[in-house]
Amino acid sequence: MSTATGTMTPTKPANGKRRLRWPHYALIASGVLVLLSLVRVIDDANPVTSSGTVSASLRLAVPIFLAGLGGLWSERSGVINIGLEGMMILGTWTGAWAGFQWGPWIGVLAGIIGGALGGLLHAIATVSFGVDHIVSGVAINILGIGLTQFLAGLIFDKGEAKALGGGPRQSPPVDTINTLTLPVLSGGKIGGWQSPDWLGSLEDHHWFLVSDLAGILRGLTSEMSLLTFVALLLVPLSFLILWKTSFGLRIRSCGEDPYAAESLGVQVYRMKYAAVIISGGFSGLAGAFLVVVAGNLFQDGQTNGRGFIGLAAMIFGNWRPGGLMTGSLLFGYTDAMNVRGGGESVHALLLFVTILLVGAAVYQTVRATRLRPLAVTDLGHREVRNAYISAVLALVAAAGLLTWFLMSDLVPGELVSFFPHLTTLLVLALASQRLRMPTANGLRYRRGEAR
């Protein structure tokens, strides 16, 4: 199996495109920061890079990327999991039920178990009985809603739970998990000494780039929940397990070619079960996060479609943890802009997107120019034509957004509320050309049926 590991991570993809490395990502992140700082100064929209926006973005992104990680584990084993929403709902109820009685950390553990039970049910249906993956996922979503509503009325609306504030659609309050603030930089305490808030002081000056960087760092180092810190560690941990261990290689081989994996001695059923149960555990953790960090109780409709958004973030990330995290942060940021700054801050993002579209148009034009001498086949001519069409469409969209930016001072509230969802749709549409899901994803597997 060791040779397979080497062949699955080539330094250059077969299509000839250069693979991005960490220095490239750092350069891209720096460019985005400079651009955000520029539009903040031009439109005087300080919430664009404020510490409050960054902190809210992270808090809103965590349940999304946890659900997305659940989808990643499942689909890397070849099992489509659109039941993430239902597993999140199970995690919110079990987390609240245990949390108000025995504390938030027990609630987190119970939330993971609740989601894992949903994953087990999905694995039994799809892996053992061969039920269509989409049908099973929809059934789990319906089951999660109905079961938690029934249990909430049965348990939270009676006795001690009701006396503590529970009801047929909500649980009693759950204690929140402690937060951390980094001393010296963000004003944390060392013993009994209160350190100065250096980053907050820099942020308040609103200097170009310097204050923006200070605001971002302060948002990441001030009042961060311990569970948020644990959740962030799960992203690199998932990458290390799935791409750097034999266990992860076996799971991924089941998603690419389960019959080839079977011929090499991999217990395909066992690997699929493990991956889907882990998937449910991640989704349950996302639900528990909503109970003990984002809020302090279970409420009916609390997940608000975050499981589906996590699935979209996973697809945007091309079934890889880093891209998934990026997509989740993108949605969390646009949602935080809606909460923190409203129409005026989203108005600044119109200019930000305009500049990005102009850059995309320039890139597509240069790409088409380079491809023209090589376009000797119908496929080559089609690629050149599509590149020019993409450039024209990007310029038209940029012109429209720039006109909107210049002729208005804010974005209407209705569009502000829809902006995060619109961002998700646009990102998925623009990223669809480079997506590659696991080859055997969603296919029915039966031991010994290899042709």
Strand content: under 5%
Q: How many distinct beta strands?
A: 4
The SS-based structural class is mainly alpha
Overall residue-averaged pLDDT value: 85
What's the main sheet like? 2 strands, antiparallel
Instruction: For the largest sheet, list the strands in their spatial order.
Output: 1-4
Q: Sum up the overall morphology in one term.
A: globular
The topology string of helices and strands comes to HHHHHHHEEEHHEHHHHHHHHH
The span between the termini is: 22 Å
Low-confidence stretches: 1-16
Q: Which value, in Å, is the CA radius of gyration?
A: 24 Å
Count of DSSP helices? Answer: 18
Helix content: over 70%
Short description:
This protein has 451 residues and is mainly α.
Care to describe what's here?
71% of the residues lie in helices and 2% in strands. The protein has helices spanning 2-7, 22-43, 51-76, 84-102, 104-128, 133-156, 159-163, 198-204, 210-221, 226-244, 246-256, 258-263, 268-294, 306-316, 321-340, 342-371, 378-406, 413-431; strands at 179-180, 189-190, 193-194, 224-225. Strand 2 and strand 3 form a beta hairpin. With 451 residues, it is an all-alpha fold. Mean pLDDT is 85; it is low at 1-16. The two termini are 22 Å apart. A two-stranded antiparallel ribbon has the order 1-4. Strands 2-3 form a two-stranded antiparallel sheet. 43% of the residues are buried. It is built from 18 helices and 4 strands.
